[in-house]
Amino acid sequence: MGTPDDRAPLAERVGQLLDEGLPLTIVAAGDPVLRRGAEPFDGQLEPALLARFVEALRITMRAAPGVGLAAPQVGVELRIAVIEDPAPVPEEVRRVRGRVPQPFRVLVNPSYEPVGATRAAFFEGCLSVPGWQAVVARPAEVRLTGQDEHGRALDEVFSGWPARIVQHETDHLDGVLYLDRAESRSLSSNQAMAERWAQPTPEEAARALGFELP
C-alpha cells in the first residue's frame, strides 16, 4: 500500500491528463510506458477521479474505435482496463470466432489463467500498433479474476472472442503487446487484411504466408 504522499503525484498527473480534454491520446508502440508493466490499483485515485478516468477510457475506446483499452495505453501505469464489444460482425464470423456482444465493463487488477488446453488463432490488432494485424494463438477459454471499479470481486470464465479481449488487455498491464505473442510471418497491414485475409479464419493466410496454426 502506498502512502498518501506516494499517491499524490499519480493522481495529479491523471487529473491533468483529464483536464486536457477527450478523447485521450493513445500511446503508440515504442513508448516505454507500454513495456514497464502497471502497478496494482489500491486507491491511488479517489472515487470521483477514478470515475472520471474510467469514463475517459470509455470515451477514448469508443472514439478509436476499439473493443478494449488499458490504462498504460493512455500513459497511466495502473492495472485498470475497460472492454466493450457490440460485435457488429456477420453471422459466420460470429460463429467461427465466438464473437458475442460484451457490455461495457471495467477490469481492475485483472489476471487470467487458461481453462483447458485448447488454443485458437486469429488475426488481432491493437490501438497502440495502428495499421497492422497479426495472428495470435491464445487459450480459447480463460478464468479472469480481479475487481470492478467499485471493488467488487470478479471471477469469471470467458471463451471465444471475449476471452481474447480480456487476455489482450490484461497483457497490456504486464507490459506485453500482442506482437510478442504473434506469428511474425502473419504480420499484415490493414489494407492487406481487407484485400486478402478477411476470411473468418486465418487458414488461407497461413498457407500463403508460411506459418503454422495450432
Automatic annotation (TrEMBL):
GO terms for molecular function: peptide deformylase activity. Its EC number is 3.5.1.88. Binds 1 Fe(2+) ion. Its cofactor is Fe(2+). It is an enzyme of class 3 (hydrolase). This is Peptide deformylase. Keywords: Hydrolase, Iron, Metal-binding, Protein biosynthesis. Belongs to the polypeptide deformylase family. Fe cation binds at residues 126, 168, 172. Pfam families: Pep_deformylase. PANTHER family: PEPTIDE DEFORMYLASE, PEPTIDE DEFORMYLASE, MITOCHONDRIAL. CDD domains: Pep_deformylase. Removes the formyl group from the N-terminal Met of newly synthesized proteins. Requires at least a dipeptide for an efficient rate of reaction. N-terminal L-methionine is a prerequisite for activity but the enzyme has broad specificity at other positions. It catalyses: N-terminal N-formyl-L-methionyl-[peptide] + H2O = N-terminal L-methionyl-[peptide] + formate.
